[in-house]
Write a structure and sequence with these properties.
Residues 87-200 form the Histidine N-acetyltransferase C-terminal domain. By secondary structure, this protein is α+β, with helices and mostly antiparallel strands. The protein has six helices and twelve strands. Helix 5 crosses helix 6.
Length: 239
């Protein structure tokens, strides 16, 4: 079993050992109450020296998207032949259990609505049922016998004043990445009423491509760089 968390220390408290003390206290609590947990998966803007870095990801977050001012509807790019929605059952039964999952999700954790977790149906069920999250999953079309080379998770997160649409994309194919960005943005335009914020989390190597594409689709938005890059890290829970 795993423990997951997203760690970020406020600027005014950095350099005071807050993270180390908090992490130690949390691990002690986990050891007492959840003895089966073997490792801690967490995201942080800095990977602590005692932790193992799994991968580095980038968040592209926009200012509020005004659909009336976007250029999205006028761009003649059609990715309908590349990407399609998939069910939670297909995601969990096929993709999570496939050997391809190890290539898509390095060491098996995924990031869903900025939260790292093990790629399992129980974690997704927890988010949906207990936290009230609304998810949208999409994969590239690969035929009945094929295994997708890309997958994206979209999460609708209502906030005070404006809705958040947070997306995580997993692929090593730049063309499929662009198709996933376009597909998720198109879905957000279809299901969200009014203005909304949107963010894309992806491998660091694809972030410049994502920013370029979003600037083309959404020329009026600005990009938030306060938390642009984070590390996905692992700690072994000592018994």
């Amino acid at each position: 079993m795993e423990e997951q968390q997203f760690d970020r220390t406020s600027t005014e408290f950095r350099g005071q050992g807050v993270y180390k003390r908090l992490s130690k206290a949390m691990n002690e609590y986990v050891r007492r109450h959840y003895p089966d947990v073997q490792r801690e998966i967490f995201a942080s803007t800095v990977c602590p020296s005692l932790a193992r870095e799994i991968t580095q990801m980038t968040i592209i977050r926009t200012s509020a998207v005004n659909k009336k001012l976007s250029a999205f509807s006028s761009i003649k790019v059609n990715f309908s032949d590349l990407i399609e929605p998939c069910t939670k059952e297909y995601l969990c039964d096929v993709i999570f259990s496939s050997p391809v999952a190890q290539k898509l999700f390095l060491d098996n954790p995924i990031v869903l609505d900025w939260i790292p977790m093990e790629a399992s149906q129980s974690n997704i069920d927890h988010f949906q049922h207990e936290l009230g999250q609304d998810f949208y999953f999409a994969v590239d079309k690969c035929g009945e016998d094929g295994i997708p080379k890309s997958v994206s998770f979209g999460a609708l997160s209502p906030r005070v004043g404006c809705t958040d649409w947070t997306v995580t994309i997993y692929t090593s194919d730049p063309s499929l990445y662009e198709a996933q960005v376009t597909h998720q943005l198109q879905h957000a335009f279809n299901v969200i009423e009014g203005d909304f914020f949107i963010s894309f989390t992806q491998d660091k190597s694809l972030s410049n491509r994502g920013i370029r594409l979003l600037r083309e689709y959404l020329p009026q938005v600005e990009f938030d760089k306060t938390r642009s890059t984070f590390f996905l890290c692992e700690n072994v829970i000592q018994s």
